[in-house]
Design goal:
heterodimer, A: 281 residues, mainly alpha, globular, B: 357 residues, five-stranded antiparallel sheet, 33% strand
C-alpha cells in the first residue's frame, strides 16, 4: 500500500475513534452523574461540581430509599408485573410465532400486518382505548390490568421476532423428529424451542424491559400508592416544593441494576448461530 | 420386514397441477428400490407421502400390508435420511442417534447398547460426544444413517442423501449404503436425480417424469430396453443419441444420411414403413472411422475421461456423442465417418415416443 493510502487509513481510523469516544462519553456521562448525585451528602445536592465522586460521598440515599421509603414495595410490584409479563409474553409469542412461521391459515397475512401496524402507533395513543377496555373489565388500579396492558404492547414485536427466528430453522429438523417418533408438539418442544434460545432471550428481555421501565401506562392504570411500580414510585419522590435528588438518583441506579444484570446474564444467548452444522452448507 | 405398495396415488399442492398422478408402485420386502427422475418429477413427494410428512389427495399407501394413509409418521415404523442430513444441532452425535429410542421410551441400557452398536457399524464410535457442527459432510451423513438404522425400522427412506457430498465421498458413501442394505436387508426407497447412483445402487429402479411412472425395471433392463424415449435418454451416461429418422422399408433416413437396416429391423418396423420414428443409439455403439463407408460427421469436441473418451460430433446439423476406448487421435474440426449399427439401435414411435417392439 502507498504511503498516501496508509496516511488516509490512519486519519480515517483516528476520526472514527474520536467520534466513538465522544458518543460513548455522551452516553456514559449522564449515568455517572446520576451515580455521583446518589452519593452526595444531603447538604450538597445543588452542587455544580463536575467531580464524579463528590466530597463526603455517602450511601445514605440508598439507605433512605430502602428503609425510609416504600421502595421495597415498589420493587416487589415491579418484579411481580415484569416477571408475569415476561412469562406470559414468552409463552404467547413462542407459540403464536410458531403458528405464523409454519402454517398458512385464513388471516395469516392480516394478523402479521395487524401486529406491525399496532407498532406504528405511539403508546400514548393506545392509552385511552386501553383504559376504557380495562375499566370495562374492572381492571383499573389492579396489577393484572397493568400486566394485560404490557403484554398487549410487547406481544407484536415478540411475535415478529419469534416468527422470523423460527423461519431460519430448517423445517426438516422437525420432520426428522416426527419420523423419529415425536408429535408435532413434541418436535416443537424438543427441537425447535431449544434451538430458538437466542430469540426467546430477546423476547424475554424485551417483555421484561417493556414492563420494568414503563411509566405512562402505569400512571394511568395504577392509582393506589401500594400498587406503585418503581417508575411511579420514583416519580413520587419528586415533590412539588422540594425534590430529594440524592434519593431520586439512588432509586434510578437501583432500578437500572436488574436490567443491566439481565443483559450480562443473557449476553451469550443473544448471539445466534446455534443451528450451524445441523444441516448442509 | 415389509413391502410398500402405492395404489393410484394422487397428490397436488393447492389448486395447481397434480404433482403425482395415479402412481402405482410396489416395493418388495427387503428390496432396494430407487426413484429417479429430473427435478420436479415428484420423486421426493412420493417419499414424503410414504413417510407421512405429506397427505395424499387420493389413493392408498400400504406398508407391511397395512393401509397407512391416516397414520402419523411416528407410527409408520419408518426411518428417513434427509438431503440436508437434518441432524439436531444442539445434541451430540450420541443424542442424535439415541433421540428416536428415547422418544419411544426404551430403557436406558438398551438405548446405550443400540447406539454404540450403530456407531460401531458406521465408524462413529470416536465421535459420539461431538456436535454436528464439528463433523465433516461425510461424518454428518453417517450420523444421519446411524439415526435411521438404530431403530431397526420396517422401511428406510432416503431423500437424495448424497447430493451434498463431493464426488469422491459420494462414491464411498454409495458403497457404504449398499453394503449396509446387504447386511440389514431392510426395505428401502431411495430418491435420487443421479442416474449413475440409481444404476449402481438400485435392485430395481422407478423412472419418473412429471408425476408419472415411466418404467420400473432392474438397472440393466432399463438400459437395454427403455420403455420410451425419455427413459432411453435419461438412463446412461453419456445419454443415448436419439435422432429423428424416416423408415423407408429398407433403410433409415436421417436427414441426408442413410443407415442400412438389418433383417430384425425390417421385421420390427414393418408397421412403420414411410413413417417417422426416433432411432436411439448408445454412445458406445457409435463407431468412428477417419474414412471409408459410413455417415459423414464432424468432430466438435474430444473429452478425455481417462480410460475412455467422449467424442462430440455433428451430423447434418444434429449433435451426437460417441464413446471410444483410450484417447483417439481426433481433433476438433476433423471430418470423420460414423457407423451406427441398426441391429442394436432402439426405435421409438414418433408420436407417443414409446418403444417400438
Amino acid at each position: 500500500m502507498s504511503r498516501e493510502g496508509n496516511r488516509l487509513r490512519i486519519v480515517k481510523s483516528v476520526v472514527i475513534h474520536v467520534a466513538l469516544v465522544l458518543f460513548t462519553m455522551a452516553v456514559i456521562y449522564p449515568i455517572l452523574q446520576v451515580i455521583s448525585i446518589s452519593l452526595r451528602p444531603g447538604d450538597r445536592l445543588y452542587s455544580t461540581s463536575l467531580a464524579l465522586i463528590p466530597d463526603g460521598a455517602t450511601l445514605h440515599a440508598y439507605y433512605a430509599i430502602f428503609f425510609e421509603k416504600p421502595f421495597l414495595l415498589w420493587l416487589r410490584n415491579s418484579l411481580l408485573v415484569s416477571i408475569t409479563v415476561t412469562i406470559i409474553g414468552v409463552a404467547l409469542a413462542s407459540t403464536s410465532g410458531y403458528a405464523f412461521a409454519r402454517f398458512r391459515f385464513p388471516g395469516h397475512g392480516a394478523g402479521m400486518l395487524g401486529f406491525l401496524v399496532s407498532q406504528m402507533f405511539p403508546a400514548t395513543m393506545l392509552l385511552l382505548p386501553l383504559f376504557i377496555l380495562l375499566s370495562k373489565i374492572g381492571m383499573i388500579d389492579a396489577i393484572p390490568g397493568l400486566v394485560i396492558a404490557y403484554v398487549a404492547t410487547a406481544l407484536p414485536f415478540c411475535v415478529w421476532t419469534m416468527k422470523g427466528y423460527y423461519e431460519s430453522i430448517p423445517v426438516e429438523l422437525e420432520e426428522a423428529a416426527m419420523v423419529d417418533g415425536t408429535t408435532r408438539a413434541g418436535a416443537f418442544w424438543k427441537i425447535t424451542l431449544p434451538l430458538s434460545a437466542p430469540a426467546l432471550m430477546i423476547t424475554a428481555l424485551f417483555s421484561f424491559m417493556t414492563a420494568w421501565s414503563e411509566f405512562m401506562v402505569a400512571r394511568v392504570i395504577i392509582q393506589s400508592q401500594n400498587l406503585y411500580t418503581l417508575p411511579l414510585g420514583l416519580e413520587s419522590l419528586a415533590g412539588t416544593f422540594q425534590t430529594e435528588w440524592a434519593n431520586y438518583s439512588a432509586g434510578a441506579v437501583v432500578v437500572c441494576i436488574p436490567v443491566v444484570a439481565l443483559f450480562l446474564i443473557l449476553n451469550r444467548y443473544l448471539v445466534s448461530g446455534l443451528t450451524l452444522g445441523g444441516v448442509k452448507g | 420386514m415389509a413391502g410398500i405398495i402405492l395404489r393410484n396415488l394422487t397428490k397436488s399442492y393447492g389448486k395447481g397441477e397434480p404433482v403425482l398422478e395415479g402412481i402405482n408402485l410396489e416395493v418388495h420386502d427387503q428390496e432396494f428400490m430407487v426413484l429417479v427422475g429430473p427435478s420436479g418429477c415428484g420423486k421426493s413427494t412420493i417419499l414424503r407421502v410414504v413417510s407421512g410428512l405429506e397427505d395424499i389427495d387420493d389413493g392408498e399407501i400400504l406398508i407391511d400390508d397395512r393401509v397407512v394413509n391416516d397414520v402419523p409418521p411416528r407410527d409408520r415404523d419408518i426411518a428417513m435420511v434427509f438431503q440436508s442430513y437434518a441432524l439436531y444441532p444442539h445434541m451430540t452425535v450420541y443424542e442424535n442417534i439415541a433421540f428416536g429410542l428415547r422418544v419411544r421410551k426404551h430403557p436406558k441400557e438398551k438405548i446405550d447398547g443400540l447406539v454404540r452398536e450403530a456407531a460401531d457399524t458406521l465408524s462413529l464410535s470416536s465421535m459420539l460426544e461431538k456436535r454436528p457442527g464439528q463433523l465433516s459432510g461425510g461424518e454428518r451423513q453417517r450420523v444421519a444413517l446411524g439415526r435411521a438404522i438404530v431403530r431397526k425400522p420396517k422401511v428406510f427412506l432416503f431423500d437424495e442423501p448424497l447430493s451434498n457430498l463431493d464426488a469422491k465421498l459420494r462414491v464411498q458413501m454409495r458403497a457404504e449404503i449398499s453394503a449396509l442394505h446387504e447386511r440389514l436387508r431392510i426395505t428401502t426407497l431411495y430418491v435420487t436425480h443421479d442416474q449413475v447412483e440409481a444404476m449402481t445402487m438400485g435392485e430395481r429402479i422407478t423412472v419418473l417424469r412429471d408425476g408419472l411412472v415411466q418404467q420400473v425395471d432392474k438397472p440393466m433392463g432399463l438400459y437395454s430396453n427403455p420403455a420410451n424415449r425419455f427413459v432411453g435418454e435419461f438412463i446412461g451416461s453419456p445419454p443415448m443419441n436419439v435422432l429423428p429418422a424416416r423408415w423407408t422399408g429398407t433403410e433409415l433416413q436421417v436427414g441426408e444420411s442413410r443407415i442400412p437396416s438389418t433383417p430384425e429391423t425390417i421385421t420390427l418396423l414393418a408397421n412403420h414403413v414411410g413413417r417417422e420414428v426416433f432411432v436411439g443409439v448408445r454412445p458406445e455403439l457409435v463407431e468412428i472411422q477417419s474414412e471409408g463407408e459410413g455417415l459423414p460427421a464432424r468432430v466438435e469436441l474430444v473429452e478425455p475421461m481417462g480410460g475412455e473418451s467422449n467424442i462430440y460430433l455433428t451430423m447434418g446439423g444434429r449433435r451426437l456423442i460417441a464413446r471410444v476406448d483410450g484417447l483417439p487421435s481426433l481433433r476438433m474440426g476433423d471430418d470423420v465417418r460414423i457407423r451406427m449399427p441398426a441391429g442394436q439401435a432402439h426405435f421409438f414411435d414418433h408420436e407417443t415416443e414409446r418403444r417400438i417392439i
